[in-house]
C-alpha cells in the first residue's frame, strides 16, 4: 500500500504540474503558444525532479504504466504489482487533472477537444517513450542518483524536440483526455497514443538490455 500510495500521489502531482502549468501558461502568455509551451515544459520538468527524488526510494517512482511494463517484462518488478501500479497511476493522474481544474476555477469534469492525431504524432510518441526508457535505464546503469535530473531534463527538452510534445506515458495521456485546456488531447485520439507508447516499450526491450548490459 505504501508503494501504491506513492505511485498515486506522485502521478497526481505530475498531472498537476502538466495541466496546472498549462492552464497558467495559456492565461499569462497573451496568445504566444511558444511561450506557453516553454512555461509548461519547465514546470513539468521541475515537478518530475521533485517527485522522482522524493518518491523514488518508496516505489521506484514509475508514475507511468509504460515504465512499469518495461521493468515487469525485464523481470525487475513482480507481475502481481503491475496492475495495481497501473491502476494507481491512472487514478492519480485523473485526480491531478481534477485538482488542477479546481485550483483554476474550471469545471471539474471535462473532455478535451484538442485534436492530436496522425503518423507524425504517433511516431513521435514511440520515439519519446523509447527515449524516456533509454534515459532511465542508462542512468540506472551509470549513475543512479542522477536519474531524477536526467528524466526531468529529458522531458523538458522532449516537449520541444518531439512533435507530440512527448506525452510518453499512458496514464498521463488518459488523464489529459479529461481536460479541455492547453495540455488536453481528444479522447478519441488517446488509444493510438497509448498503442505507440507501448511500441516504444517494445523497442526498448529489444535495444536497451543489449546496450546497457
Q: Write out the CATH superfamily name.
A: Glycerol uptake facilitator protein
Oligomer: single chain
Q: Which regions are unreliable across 5 or more consecutive residues at pLDDT < 50?
A: none
Counting helices, strands and paired strands, the structural category is: mainly alpha
Largest sheet, described in full?
A: none
Mind telling me which CATH architecture this is?
A: Up-down Bundle
Distance between the termini: 32 Å
Estimate percent helicity.
over 70%
* Count of DSSP H/I helices: 8
Shape: globular
Estimated share of beta-strand residues: under 5%
Domain unit count: 1
CATH class: Mainly Alpha
**Helix and strand element order:** HHHHHHHH
CATH topology: Glycerol uptake facilitator protein
Indicate the mean pLDDT. Answer: 97
List keywords for this structure.
mainly alpha; Glycerol uptake facilitator protein; 213 residues; 72% helix
What this model shows, in words?
α3 packs antiparallel against α4, α5 (119-142) packs antiparallel against α6 and α5 packs parallel to α8. With 213 residues, the chain is mainly alpha-helical. It has helices at residues 2-28, 33-59, 65-73, 82-103, 119-142, 147-161, 170-176, 190-211. It has a single domain (2-211), classed as Glycerol uptake facilitator protein (Up-down Bundle), CATH 1.20.1080.10.
